[in-house]
Design goal:
Largest sheet: 6 strands, antiparallel
Strand content: 15-25%
Number of helices: 8
CATH superfamily of the largest domain: GAF domain
Structural class: alpha+beta
Shape: elongated
CATH topology of the largest domain: Beta-Lactamase
Helix content: 40-55%
Distance between the termini: 106 Å
Radius of gyration: 28 Å
Oligomer: single chain
CATH architecture of the largest domain: 2-Layer Sandwich
Order of helices and strands: HHEEHEEEHHEEEHEEEHH
CATH class of the largest domain: Alpha Beta
Length: about 325
C-alpha cells in the first residue's frame, strides 16, 4: 500500500478543462498566470479591444475606471510599469485596492497593457519584474491568436475566390450564377446579407440577386438616390456606410459596404454587403474591393455569351455599349 504521506506530497491532480472558445482558453490562461503572480484579479487591454472580454475574477472591465484607463495609456505609450491605488470590484465579492499596469510587447498588429489587481496589499518592486514576464507571455498568446484568426480568414477568402472562379467557368445563366454568388459571400465570409444590383441603360439599378432573399420591398434603384450609389458607380470607389439608414440596405444593419462591380468602360452594377454584429475591418474592405472587380468581370463575361437568357429590363448584356451611345448622344 502506498503511504498516505507520499500521497499528500505528490503533485495534485488537475481536472481537465475543455476550451471550446477562445474566451474559454483565455480564462484558463489568465487563471494560471494570476496564480503565478499572486494576483487577485487579472486582465489585459489591447489597442483594438479585440480581446478585452478576457478576464480573471473580474466583474467588469477595470479600464472603465478613469484612473486605471489613464495608467493603461501611460504604460502603453511610455513602456513603463505603473502602480496605483484603486477600487475595483472582483467577481468573488471583494474589492481590489491596488493595481499594477504593465505594457504588453507592442507589435504592428496590437498594443496594450496588462492589468493586475490585489486586495489589501500593495505591489513590491519584485512584482514589477514578474509582471513584465507575464505580459510577455500574454503578448505571445495574443500574437498566436491573431495569426490563427488571420489564417482562418485567409482560408475562407481563398475558398470564396475558388468558388467564384468555378461559377465563372461553368455557369451559363446569369441570374442563377449571381444568386449562388450572393449566397456564397454571405455564408462563407460572414456577412448578414449580400445583394447584387446591375445597371440598366436608363441608369437605373435592378436587384438581380439577394441573400437572404425577399428582404427588400422593391427591386429598382436610381443612381442619384444616394451619395453611396453615386460614389460607387460614378467614382468607381468602395463606399462604407456605418449606421446609415437606406431603404435599399437590409434593416438592423450596423455596417455596410457598397462595392462597384468594375468592368470596362464603366461599372456594371454594385455589390452591397451588410453586417449587423462586428464592424468591418481593413481586411474585409480590401477583400470586398477584390470581389467587386471579380464579380464585375464575371457579369461582363456571362453577358457576352449568346446562350444567356434574357428578360425584360435585364441590364447585363448591353450595359457598356448602350450606355456609351447614350453618353455620346448627350454630348452631341
Amino acid at each position: 500500500m502506498s503511504s498516505p504521506i507520499g500521497g499528500l506530497l505528490s503533485a495534485p491532480a488537475l481536472s481537465a478543462r475543455r476550451a471550446i472558445t477562445d474566451a474559454d482558453a483565455w480564462e484558463v490562461r489568465l487563471a494560471a498566470l494570476a496564480t503565478l503572480g499572486h494576483y487577485d484579479g487579472l486582465t489585459f487591454v489591447t489597442t483594438d479591444n479585440a480581446d478585452a472580454p478576457a478576464r480573471y475574477n473580474l466583474v467588469d472591465d477595470p479600464a472603465a475606471e478613469p484612473t486605471v484607463r489613464a495608467a493603461v495609456d501611460q504604460a502603453a505609450h511610455s513602456a513603463t510599469t505603473v502602480q496605483l491605488r484603486t477600487s475595483v470590484p472582483l467577481a468573488d465579492g471583494r474589492m481590489a485596492s491596488a493595481a499594477l499596469v504593465t505594457p504588453l510587447a507592442s507589435t504592428e498588429a496590437f498594443g496594450g497593457a496588462l492589468v493586475a489587481l490585489r486586495v489589501g496589499r500593495p505591489f513590491a518592486a519584485a512584482d514589477a519584474y514578474t509582471a513584465v514576464g507575464i505580459a510577455e507571455i500574454v503578448s505571445l498568446e495574443l500574437a498566436r491568436s491573431l495569426t490563427a484568426r488571420r489564417e482562418a480568414t485567409e482560408r475562407r477568402q481563398a475558398f470564396a475566390l475558388y468558388e467564384l472562379a468555378r461559377y465563372a467557368l461553368f455557369s451559363e445563366g446569369l441570374d442563377e450564377t449571381l444568386q449562388s454568388i450572393a449566397m456564397l459571400l454571405a455564408t462563407t465570409l460572414e456577412h448578414e446579407a449580400a445583394h447584387i444590383w446591375l445597371r440598366r441603360p436608363d441608369r437605373s439599378l435592378w436587384r438581380h440577386a439577394a441573400y437572404p432573399p425577399d428582404r427588400l420591398p422593391f427591386e429598382t434603384l436610381w443612381e442619384n438616390e444616394h451619395d453611396a450609389l453615386w460614389g460607387a458607380l460614378r467614382e468607381r470607389r468602395l463606399v462604407r456606410m456605418s449606421g446609415t439608414a437606406a431603404p435599399w440596405i437590409p434593416s438592423n444593419t450596423g455596417d455596410a459596404l457598397v462595392v462597384p462591380l468594375r468592368s470596362d468602360p464603366r461599372p456594371v452594377g454594385i455589390l452591397v454587403l451588410a453586417r449587423a454584429g462586428t464592424p468591418y475591418g481593413y481586411d474585409d474592405v480590401e477583400m470586398a474591393d477584390v470581389l467587386g472587380t471579380f464579380i464585375g468581370r464575371v457579369v461582363a463575361s456571362l453577358a457576352r455569351r449568346p446562350t444567356e437568357p434574357s428578360r425584360p429590363g435585364d441590364a447585363a448584356e448591353p450595359v457598356s455599349e448602350r450606355e456609351s451611345e447614350v453618353e455620346l448622344a448627350e454630348r452631341s
